[in-house]
Amino acid sequence: MRIAESSCMRFAGSVRLAIGVLGVLALAACDTAEERAEEHYQKGLELIEAGDADRALVELRNVFNLNGNHRDARALYAATVRDMGRTREAFGQYLRLVEQHPDDLEARLALANLSIEGRTWEDAARHAARAKELAPDEFEVQVVDLVVRYREAGLANDDATRAELLATAQDMLETAPDKLTLHNVVIDGAIWQQDFELALARVDDALGHHPEEQQLYMLRLAALEQLGDMDGIEEQLVALAQQFPDVERYRRLVLQFYQQRGEPEKAEAFIRSIVSPTDEDPAEYVAFVRYLRDTRGIEAAVEELQSALEQAPDSAVLKALQASLIFDSGQRDEGISRMQALVDSDEGSSDALRFKVALAQMLLATGNEVGARKLVEETLAEDVSNVDAIKMQAAWLIDGDETERAISLLRTALDQTPDDPQIMTLIANAHLRNGDRELARDLLSLAADTSSFAPDESLRYAQFLVGAGELLGAEDVLVNALRRSPSNLRLLALLGDVYVRLEDWSRAEHVERTLRGLEEPQAKDAADAIRVAILDGQDRSEDALDFLAQLATGEDGNFRALTAAVQSLIAAGEVEQARALVQDAIEIDPDRFDLKFLDAALESSAGDLSVAEQTYRELISREEANERVWVELVRVLNRAGKPGEAGLMLDQGLEKFPDGPNLLWAKASTLEQQNDFEGAISIYEQLYAISSRSTIVSNNLASLLSTHRGDEASIERAYRIARRLRGTNNPAFQDTYGWLAYQRGRFDEALTYLEPAAAGLPQDPLVRFHLGMTYLAVDRTTEGVEALQTAISLAGPDDVRPQFEIAREELNKLESAGQ
Predict the structure, then answer these.
(1) N or C, which terminus of the chain has less Cβ within 10 Å?
(2) Would you place residue 576 in the very low, low, confident or very high pLDDT band (cuts 50, 70, 90)?
(3) Containing domain of residue 777, as a range?
C-alpha cells in the first residue's frame, strides 16, 4: 500500500516524537529497576541486622530478578546461606559471583575455603592461586595458600616441606585459634605422624570452637579408622545420623559402613528405624525403596513396596514409585499404563505434575520424544518453576545448541533446589557445549561433592579429569566414590585405568583383584582388561598376548579377548597365528555369527579381500546381520576397486538401517569425495539430529557449513555447533574452530588455532589455505603468501575446490600490487 508523501512527512514527525518519549520512558524504567533493586538490597541488609535471614534472602532474590549483576547483593546472599550451613548453595553463589567479577577477593577466598572443606582440591588450588595473585599479604590468603601447599607436599612425599608447613600452621593457629582450615592441617599432621590419639584430641579441640562443623566429624572418623576402632566408627556414624537428622549423607554413610562389614540386616534395620511408608511425606521411604533396588535388586524393591501399599493403600506417591519399578523391570507398557492412570486420576492434585514428568521420562526412554515433550510443555504451562520439567526441557535445549536459554532455566531451578547434582551436571553440559571447560569443571566438581560422591556424578567428573590429564584429581574423586559404593564396577574399572596411566602397577593390580572378587560377569572382563593394560604398560607385550590367547581358548571362550589377541597378532605381523586362533574357535562353534565376522575382518586386514567380501555377503543375509556388517562390506568393496558395487551396497544398507550412524557416515564421506557438499551436509544434519553430543559429527558438520557455505546464517549455525571445540588440541578441530573465528572477524583468535592445526596437518591444503588467509588478514603478508602457495601446491592442478581459485586470485592481487 502506497502512502502519500505529505502524510508520510507528518507520520515521520510523529514517529520522531514518539521515539523521543519512549526513549525517556525507557531510561526512566531502567533507573526505576536499578533503584528498586537497590531498595530490596537495603531492605535485605536491614533484615540481616535484625536476624531475619529467611526474609532477607527473599529480598536479595528480588534484587537478582531486577539486576542479576548486583555484586554486593550476590556476596551478601552467598555469605548468608553459608552462615546458615547451606554450603552447596553458597558455593554456587560465589561461583556465579566470580563468573561476573573474576577479581573478587572475597569470593575467591570463600570458594577456596569451601573447596578445602569439601576436599575438592583442584578447585581449592585454582581459587587460592588467584587470591594470592590479588592479595599475597592478606592473612586469610596465606592460610588457604598454606593448606593447598601442605596437601601438595604430602602428595609429593616432600616430608621436609610438609613438616615446615605444619609448624607454620601451628604458629598461625595460636594467632587465630578459631581458624578451621588450620585445625584441619594440624589434625592431618597428627595422623601423618601416626599419632592417632593426638589426632582425636585435636579434633575435639577444633570441635570446641566449631561444634556444628560436620567436616570435623569426618576427620574424627578417619582417625578412628586408622586406629581400627570399628565399634567407635559405628557409634560415631549413628550419632551423626541422629545429631543431624536432616543430612541424608550421614544416613548413607551408616549404610555404607554396614555394607562394607557385610551386615545388610543392620543397614535395613537402621533405615526402618527412621522411615515409614505412612509418613506424611514419604520421600525418605521412597529413597529407602530405591536403596533396596540398588543393593538387592528390583524384585526386592517391588516386594517391599507391595507390603508398604498394604499399610498406605491410598498413597499416590507409592503407586507412582511402583509404576516406575515395573517400568525399570522391563515391563515398560505396564509401567507407562500405571503412571498414565495416576496422571489421569490425580489431575489437579499437588502430585499430578510430578507424575506427569515421570511419565514423560518413561516416554522419552521408549523413544517417544514427541509425547514426552508434550507432557513437559503442559507441566511448565501449569507450573513454570517445576524443577523436573525444567531439567528435561533444558536437556533438549542443550541438544539443540540453545545453551544460553538452558543455563538461564537451570539457574532458576538451582535457586529452588541448590543441592540438586542433576541440575549442576546439566549446567556443566551446557558450558561444555559453549567450550567453557573451566566453568564446566567447577560444576561437575560441585555435582560430585553435593551428591556425596554418588557413582554417576563421580564418574562424570572423574572422566572429565582423566580427559584433562588430571589423573591424581580423578583418583581422589574415584576413591571417595568407592568409599560409598565399594563394589561399583564402573568406578573400579576407571580407577584401574587411572592407575595404569599413572604406571602405579601395585594399585592397578589391587583394583584387578577387587574386580575378580565381584560376582557380576562383566567384572571379570574388566579385570582382564586391566591385566592386559598392565602387561602392555610394562612392555610385556608377549605376556599380554599369551594372556589374551589363554582367555580366548579357555572354557568360557572370551570373544573380546579373542578379538584383542587377533588384533595384536596382526599388528605384530603374525597373520597365520591369528588365523589359527580364529579357526580353532570356529571349529568349536562353526555357525557362530560373531566368529565369522571376526574371520572376515581378519582376512580383510590380511589383504585377502575376495574371501572377506564373500563372507560379508553371506553374513548380511542372516537374521543377526547388523549395520556393522554392511559397513565392512562397503569398505572391502571400495578397497577392492569396486566403487559401483560399494555404492549399491551402501544404499541397500541404508534401506535396511536408515538411521545407522556408520552407514550415514560412509554415505556422507562418499558424497564429499564426489564434491556433493550439500548432500554431505544433509547427511551430517541427519547424524547431528540423531546425536548432537558427538564431537566428531559436530566438527564435520560445522566444517562443511563454514567451508562450503558463505551465508551469515550458516556461519552462525556452524559457530554455535563448533563452540565446544574451544581449547581443543585436535588439529582437525582446531582448523574448524579457527576458520570460523576468521569468518567472524576474530583474526588473532583464529591464528591461535590455525597455526597448530597446520603444524598437525602439514599435508592438508585446506588447512594451509585457512592459515594463509588469516595471515593476510593480520598483515603478515609474507607468511600469508607462503601458506597460500603451499596450499595450491598441495592441492595440485586437478583440485577444483573454489578455495584454491581464491588463493590464486589473492596471490595475483598481491603480485599486481608489488607485494
Answers:
(1) N
(2) confident
(3) 726-819
Cβ–Cβ < 8 Å for 495, 511: yes
Which stretch, 25-34, 107-116, 346-355, has highest mean pLDDT?
107-116
Residue range 623-634: average pLDDT? 89
Q: What is the mean pLDDT of the chain?
A: 85
User: In the numeric block, which cell numbers belong to residue 216?
Assistant: 570435623
Helix ranges (H only) for 247-386 are 248-260, 264-272, 283-296, 298-311, 316-328, 332-345, 352-365, 369-382
614-625 confidence digits (pLDDT tens)? 988 999 888 888
Residue 316 and residue 355 in contact, taking contact as beta carbons nearer than 8 Å: yes
In 3D space, the residue among 318, 325, 362 whose CA is nearest the CA of residue 340 turns out to be 362
92-100: list long-range contacts, CB under 8 Å, 24+ apart.
92/414, 92/418, 92/424, 92/446, 95/442, 95/443, 95/446, 96/411, 97/71, 98/127, 99/439, 100/69, 100/71, 100/74
Report the chain's C-alpha Rg in angstroms.
32
Scanning the structure block, which residue is given the C-alpha cell 549446567? 427
How long, in residues, is the chain?
A: 819
* Nearest C-alpha neighbor of 515 from the set 505, 507, 524: 524
CB–CB of 378/356 below 8 Å? yes
Three-state SS string over 129-171 comes to HHHHHHCCCCHHHHHHHHHHHHHHHHHCCCHHHHHHHHHHHHH
Kindly state whether residue 735 falls inside one of the protein's structural domains: yes
Instruction: Please name the residue that has the C-alpha cell 569468518.
Output: 743
Q: How far is CA 430 from CA 331, 405, 407, 423, 439, in A?
A: 33, 10, 7, 11, 10
Confirm whether 346 is domain-assigned. Answer: no
Number of domains in the chain: 1
Residue indicated by cell numbers 569451601 = 114
Higher per-residue confidence, 731 vs 454: 731
Sort 435 into a burial class: Cβ within 10 Å, 0-12 / 13-18 / 19+. middle
Is residue 219 assigned to a domain?
no
By mean pLDDT, which of 19-23, 210-214, 358-362 is the weakest?
19-23
Give the cell for residue 270.
Answer: 537402621
Residue 21 confidence (pLDDT) above 50: no
Cell of residue 161, nine digits: 616441606
Dihedral pair phi/psi, residue 210, rounded to 5°: -135, 70
Encode pLDDT of 671-710 as tens digits. Answer: 988 889 999 999 999 999 888 888 999 999 999 999 888 8
Contact 134, 146 (CB under 8 A): no
Sequence-distant (≥ 6) Cβ neighbours of residue 642 within 8 angstroms: none
What pTM did the predictor assign? Answer: 0.64
Q: What is the pLDDT of residues 754-813, one digit of tens each?
A: 999 999 999 999 999 999 999 999 999 999 999 999 999 999 988 888 899 999 999 998
Closest CA to 703 of 721, 724, 727, 728: 721
Q: Residue 753: inside a domain, yes or no? A: yes
Q: For residue 98, which phi and psi values (nearest 5 degrees)? A: -75, -20
CATH of the domain at 763: 1.25.40.10
What is the distance between the alpha carbons of residues 391 and 413, in angstroms, rounded to a whole number? 8
Contact indicator for 738, 778 with CB cutoff of 8 Å: no
pLDDT tens for 312-326 read 888 888 999 999 999
Give yes or no for residue 548 having a pLDDT over 60. Answer: no
Share of the chain above pLDDT 90, in %: 42
Q: What 8-state DSSP symbol labels residue 728?
A: -
The b/e string for 640-676 (b: 16+ C-beta within 10 A; e otherwise) is eebeebbbebbeebbeebeebbbbbbbbbebbbeeee
